[in-house]
Amino acid sequence: xxxxxxxxxxxxxxxxxxxxDSAITAVKVNANLDKISYNSPVWKSAKYTTVTLYPQTxxxxxxxxxxxxxxxxxxxxxQVAAAYNETRIAFIIKWPDGxxxxxxxxxxxxxxxxxxxxxxxxxxxxKELPYIGMGSDGRAxxxxxxxxxxxxYEPNGKGDVSHxxxxxxxxxxxxxxxxxxxxxxxxxxxxxxxxxVAQGFRxxxxxxxxxxxxxxxxxxxxxxxxxxxxxxxxxxxxxLDSAVIPVSFAVWDGAKNGRNGLKYLTSWTAVTLQGKTxxxxxxxxxxxxIEGDAAKGKEAVANNGCTGCHQVEKTDAESFMxxxxxxxxxYATADYLRESIVNPSAVVVPGYNRxxxxxxxxxxxxxxxxxxxxxxxxxxxxxxxxxMVAYLKTxxxxxx
Length: 400
Ligand code: HEC
Known about the structure:
Blueprint: H1 2-10, E1 24-28, E2 49-55, H2 64-69, E3 76-84, E4 88-96, E5 114-120, E6 141-153, H3 174-186, E7 188-198, E8 204-206, E9 215-221, E10 224-232, E11 244-252, E12 264-265, E13 269-273, H4 280-287, H5 294-303, H6 328-331, H7 334-342, E14 363-366, E15 369-372, H8 382-392
The chain binds heme C.
């Protein structure tokens, strides 16, 4: 099978657009899910699904070293499982990473490995899910982020200022200094966990409720990271108590200077909550067959001048006039791609870098609203559109 695939590719045949990974099944359990870790017994009865995380190549960084480190990134295959009970839902994601990277509080150029689980605040219309990176104006996401960090001493919040002193200035020696250092270490925190509501990078609000807190962990075992999340099925930000919910996973590789937008991420992926009925629309939007002929779509993309503003395939020249599309088929849904072409301002891709192309910004501000500078292609025939979407869905790096 592998041989056949490579022969076809060598012959220049574009593989027809394949749907995303299969949906994830959340098994119904009676177990308590308030606290969850990678070795919780609940995962024994769970059903693992392979999901693919694609390098987010939308924007280039100004930093040459970072761009070089990420030049030939492949996609990552991860194993995911889910479980839910009356009140909570839990996820586990396991992915390979040869190097354990831990962010150090006092160093700005060392980045920690991390993972995030993202939910759409509103998924009633599967054709208008939030922008996959970080949500977008009017389409909010809830994000739970866990990063691997070294011990940071955070007396604030504990009210302890007696240990907020540089050890060299304590006037303590030998045994007393050792005791002091021990106390400082004991007060340190190595658990960087944040939850946000976001509508794009510029509007992130940290959720700091004391109440229904998520329980998130990251563990490095035999060159694999395992991330777990348990959170309420329903809180004031998102209601996940449905037959089918969209979820997206992201991971950061600290060894490749991964941070902010520089990550690997899955497309919106459906999670079916075992035993509930409904959600067929969402299911088919995310995992259904994609209409259209990818080979014809490639021609349509060339004939409509898309490559003038976009790097479409890896072999094309880089362009700063629009986002790179080389992995867009991996992380974007078919509906999102269609909307991007016929209504560019519906979602304006965030992460715009004003230095990237001084004469041609990605968007202009009109009455405080961001308006895309991309040509509106709503005049295209449906068949051309279908073909283009089918082609764009083939644009993605293979897994390692
Ligand atoms: C005049 C330049 C220009 C042309 C021509 C153009 N685009 Fe765009 N495109 C942009 C810009 C700028 C953005 C980012 C702002 C936005 O979201 O609309 C964008 C965004 C996109 C996105 C969203 C990418 C992402 O990472 O989410 C897709 C998909 C896309 N374009 C596809 C196309 C296709 C297909 C064509 C040809 C039919 C095309 N574009 C033609 C400038 C252009």
